[in-house]
Amino acid sequence: MEVNSLMSSQLMELQQTVQMSVMQNALNLNTTTAIELLKELPQQQTAPTHPYKGSIIDISI
Question: How far apart are CA 5 and CA 12, in angstroms?
Fold first, then answer.
């Protein structure tokens, strides 16, 4: 095999490796950012419950 052919093949493999590495780092960064944003969201407050609605059933006719 020619030296140029070998170098070309190795260069293509290196480019693929670098692309995958960059994509993995970007994904990790986006995941970290999303987690931080979710942690910063205000906690959802529960609505006050009615004193008896939903807990007492009136079956009188």
Answer: 11
DSSP-derived letter for residue 55 is T
Which residues, including other chains, have CB under 8 Å from residue 13's CB and lie 6 or more apart?
none
CA distances from 38 to 30, 33, 34, 60 (A): 12, 9, 6, 48
With residue 7 as reference, give the H or E element that holds it.
helix 3-40
Predicted TM-score of the model (pTM): 0.53
At 22, phi and psi to the nearest 5?
-65, -45
pLDDT tens for residues 16-53? Answer: 999 999 999 999 999 999 999 888 888 767 767 766 66
